[in-house]
Amino acid sequence: MYQNYDAALSKTIMFLRFPLIVSVVFIHAGLEGVVIGGNVTVHDGQFPIYESVYHVITNEIARVSVPLFFFISGFLFFYRTDFSMKTYGQKLKKRVRTLLVPYVFWNAAALLAFVTIQIFMPSLTSGNNKPILDYGLPDYLDLFWGHPISYQFWFIRDLMLVVLVSPLVYWLLKFGKGYAVAILGALWISGLQVDIPGFGIVAFFFFSFGAWFSINRRNFAVDFSRFRYTASVVYPILVAASTLLWHLNIDDRQIVHNIGIIAGLVLVVSWSAHGIMTGRLRADAFLADSSFFIFAYHGMPAFFFVKLYVTLLRPASESAMFASYLLIPLVTIGLGIAIYVVLRRYLPAFTAFITGGR
Fold it and tell me: pLDDT digits over 205-253, tens only?
């Protein structure tokens, strides 16, 4: 049993990094609505059993991952820091290397890959978009910011913006205390949307939520552990309720779904911390280190494997759909780990550059 709860917290964060990235890959590996040559190849309602399982795993359970990443980012940003403008400047300088550089690199790489596919493998494209080579400056700006072409990097985009306004977050939490977090949480739970790229309420709420624990010198793993059994009961009920509302085609299920994400966050953190502290779980440093690379790299391979699977196999059964749901993420992750091993061994400086020094 860990006696040092700070050490247990660090191990818990390290442990969570890889499984959370795995869940992100699963979110991006579905075959629903895939368009090839202007035609939708897999239609809604075509495979009801698969769609139900896919919904529960991808649209309910896996959706805890990104908010939890924002939460951890907020906690670590203010961790053991007496925040000041000098500290703010130092942290911004560091985030240029850890966030902005990978953001630019991976979006540029995805842009080059899409151009290559449009030129040499047009059969894998949807056929609904104009060639990237015909884009103007506004189109390219949109690909890099409004709708990042490396689509998973919307998370980094939103994180960069909330980091940029972190002094506001700090003073809001310092003077507004827990009330500020509660207000942000209520706005997010209500489904509030801000129609400005990068200003996502999900980023501001969960980053602030995590920051609150650091600013108040609290160990969130210990605090969440008090609700471990409660969350174990409440979370499955909320997932079931949200899924039922989805089956009934009730669009106004956002509140149930979002409350479920908070309960899921508490559940994942508390049980992971419990496993770490009892020795039943162990944080793997290599997998933790590889997680950012897999996050950054997986968009294009997942896109390619989805298109290839549909093009070659034309799935026509529930079993074929379930096979794709397992194989595509596993192949994507396995290939990513293999590439990361090679890059880290033979090109360590380049690997550090494209992963922000992680």
Answer: 999 999 999 999 999 999 999 999 999 999 999 999 999 999 998 878 8
Q: State both tokens at 34.
A: 């895939």
The Cα–Cα gap between 71 and 128 comes to: 37
Cα separation, 237 vs 242, whole angstroms: 9
* Sequence-separated (6 or more) residues with CB below 8 Å from residue 85: 167
Which whole number is the average pLDDT over 165-169?
Answer: 96
Q: Please, which contacts does 194-199 make with residues 24 or more away whose CB atoms are closer than 8 Å?
A: 197/145, 197/146, 197/147, 197/157, 198/145, 198/157, 198/158, 198/160, 198/161, 199/158, 199/161
> Which long-range contacts link 335-340 to residues 24+ away (Cβ below 8 Å)?
335/301, 336/290, 336/293, 336/294, 336/297, 336/298, 336/301, 337/290, 337/294, 339/293, 339/297, 340/290, 340/293, 340/294
- The model's pTM is 0.93
Are 246 and 253 in contact by the 8 Å Cβ rule? The answer is: yes
DSSP conformational letter for 283 = -
Whether the Cβ atoms of residue 70 and residue 206 lie closer than 8 Å to each other? yes
Distance, in Å, from the CA atom of 250 to the CA atom of 240, rounded to the nearest integer, reads 14
Alpha helices in 81-136 (DSSP H): 85-95, 101-120
- At 132, the amino acid letter reads I
What percentage of the chain carries pLDDT values higher than 70? 94
Residues forming beta bridges with residue 36, ordered by sequence position: 39
Which tokens is 198 given?
């990068």
Compute the distance between CA of residue 25 and CA of residue 40 in angstroms, rounded to an integer.
22
Distances (CA, A) of 98 to 95, 179, 356: 5, 31, 4
* DSSP string of 7-63, one letter each residue: HHHHHHHHHHHHHHHHHHHHHT---TT-EETTEESS-TTSSHHHHHHHIIIIIIIGG
The secondary structure of 199-247, three-state, reads CCHHHHHHHHHHHHHHHCCCCHHHHHHCCHHHHHHHHHHHHHHHHHHHH
Label residues 227-250 b or e (16+ Cβ within 10 Å = b): eeeebeebbeebbeebbebbeeee
